[in-house]
Amino acid sequence: MNHPENYKGKNVVVLGLAKSGVQVAKVLHQAGAHVTVNDQKEREQCPEASELEALGISVLCGGHPDDLINEEVALLVKNPGIPYKVAPIQKALELGIEVVTEVEVAYHLCKAPIIGITGSNGKTTTTTWVGMMLDAAGLSPIVAGNIGTPLSEAATAATEKDIMVVELSSFQLKGTTDFKPAISCLLNVSETHLDYHGGMEDYVASKAKLFRNQTEKDKAVLNWDDPVCRQLIPYIKAELIPFSMTETLQTGVYADPPYVANVEDEINRTVVYRDKEGKVHPIITVDQIAIPGRFNVDNALASCAIAIAAGASPDVLHGPLSAFRGVEHRLEYVLTRNETAYYNNSKATNAKATTMALTSFKKPIVLIAGGLDRGSDYMDLLPVFSERVKAVVLLGQTKDKLAEVAKLAGLKEIEVVDNEVDAADTLRKAVSIAASLAVPGDVVLLSPACASWDMYSSFEERGRIFKEAVHNL
């Protein structure tokens, strides 16, 4: 269908309530569409329903009615996390009805240029940093999307003078057709969400939708060091702005001198930007970046490249890089007790994220890990377990798989926690065991390498329970 001209008077189904579903239903209703919201949860589990019904929006809870999707439906807007195999989506596709996520609707209603940021890891940190950098540059950023504020809510309030800085997941991007950011950024690609996408091909294709509609007037920021990102270059029409930790670039943002893969050294590097004329602009030394870890240097490089692409001067980027202390649940320092430091990295929902966290510390690590089993064997963790971890405390569906990796890595202290009746008690028990294994000078790190949904409603809930347990040791 034509967006948004044809919303008025058209029948639109919004599948899934939650925050983004509620907001996009309101936006479509205000645009004149006849909106029906459907959620498979029972009515008592849908507190948002009454608010929508008061506006005149139809809400159906407790399952998917057989007649929900029919020839009179013009558009289906799905919650990003709902799989495409569910019956209403399958029926819509069979009838040729467009199926999109909130991102597509918001794009058509947004007057401001959009910066779209995606990747397997680092999205929230980078998006937050870019917002801070543009604010420091005197621009007018609005940070939204997968990071908190629903994009449709922020988009309808934005003006042409604003800049939308949007964190985007593969789930959101998969459900787009015309979406075209003025500046796109792909941070990295690693194996994750394969249960949803069915394989890496669909996962990468969903991420690549970020670039699909861009033209030579737009800009694409890309991780030069990531082989999957590099493979997408022939398909990118926008002006390419690379960032790299391992190469000195002809133009772009890079570390000087470059990092050597898998090599520890004490060299203090500088983040620099080389412009099109070849002039090098030093931005900040790595030891001045406030949040630890080599992967956060990567995020800093990407953030600088995006901010410069949006019009920020390299001179104003030092302040945000040195002031930002990180995002909750992302290598978040909790406290030091008995000379042992505790860190909450609950957002690490895949092996690569946990690897990056483990390589951020030079001290011995007691690792708490485990969670939803998505089919990975976690063998990618073998080298870093061997090099960085002194003990593991494992829980969740993947505990036995991770225990096998730990055994192969030669670890002697492997604790497997059986599920308690209360999932929170399981994690509290894990924290207590980890504390007993740690000695002064160690780090206790929650970095699960798995999603939380086997035991907890979200990685945020898991992280909060961890922090509470640490404070109550």
UniProtKB/TrEMBL annotation:
Reaction it catalyzes: UDP-N-acetyl-alpha-D-muramoyl-L-alanine + D-glutamate + ATP = UDP-N-acetyl-alpha-D-muramoyl-L-alanyl-D-glutamate + ADP + phosphate + H(+)
Its EC number(s): 6.3.2.9
Sections of the chain in a coiled coil: none
Localization annotation: Cytoplasm
Top-rank taxon, per record: Bacteria
Residues that coordinate or bind ATP: 119-125
Mur ligase central domain: residues covered: 117-307
Function description: Cell wall formation. Catalyzes the addition of glutamate to the nucleotide precursor UDP-N-acetylmuramoyl-L-alanine (UMA).
Classification via HAMAP family: MurD
The name this protein goes by in its record: UDP-N-acetylmuramoylalanine--D-glutamate ligase
Species, as recorded: Paenibacillus polygoni
